[in-house]
Amino acid sequence: MKSSAIRIGVLVVLAVVVIAAIAILPTKEYLLQFVEAVQRMGSTGPVVLAAVYVVATVLFVPGSILTLGAGFLWGVPIGIVTISVGSTLGAAAAFGLGRTLLRDVIAAKVAKNEKFRLIDAAVGEQGFKIVLLTRLSPVFPFNLLNYSFGLTRVSFRDYILASWIGMLPGTAMYVYIGSALKSLADLSTGNYDGGLGQKLLFGFGLVMTVVATVFITRIAQKSLRDALPPSAPTENHEAQHSSDQSPPDGDSPVV
């Protein structure tokens, strides 16, 4: 118990430090400087950017600048491959950390919570669909989901495959937007517009949000219904059953 409390305390402190650092430090400027540096690396640039994307994902650093930068530097095909590899490996790393560092601690805390265990089981059964739908939705935060799914029983294979497929549309769109930038100055000022394609992708994402919410809710409810024992007899039924078994008034025992 004491070691678990210490582990939780350390993880909370680290999370606070990382979030505070991202909020205080000029993260955007650092990422822009990194994109400029990658531009001079030649053929090794995509590998370096993908590796940094993995670290950024684990540390909850938003990856939009890196995605747009990849499109600007190398165009759509190479940009998509670079970001897809980096984001998928980053999601895998965060998933692994969540499953190894947090799973036992949180499982111990909610071991007596029947609903959590049933929802966990539902994710284990329908993990691919749930991961895919949440990845297609812009409402579910990418970095937080990586750790959250590590706490469920979804298989690593389903998680990785569904994450990769679900992240592809958004990756392709932002890489394409980046490829249309005139200069890195546009990237730094946020002077870019995805036009109709971005609006359509956003609308599709909202639809997927509704679908994911309904789908997950139904699975959880079904798991709860399937796991609940048959209903116990009502009090009235028990009372009626008791009266039926009692002897007639004339045979009642004398007190």
UniProtKB/TrEMBL annotation:
Metal-binding found in the keyword field: no
Ranges for domain VTT: 61-179
Top-rank taxon, per record: Bacteria
InterPro entries: TMEM64, VTT_dom
Disordered, as annotated region: 227-255
Keywords annotated in UniProt: Cell membrane, Membrane, Transmembrane, Transmembrane helix
Subcellular location: Cell membrane
Compositionally biased spans, kind Low complexity: 242-255
Transmembrane residue ranges: 6-26, 47-66, 72-97, 159-181, 201-220
Pfam families: VTT_dom (PF09335)
This protein's name: TVP38/TMEM64 family membrane protein
Species: Symmachiella dynata
Origin organism lineage: Bacteria, Pseudomonadati, Planctomycetota, Planctomycetia, Planctomycetales
Protein encoded by which gene: ydjZ_2
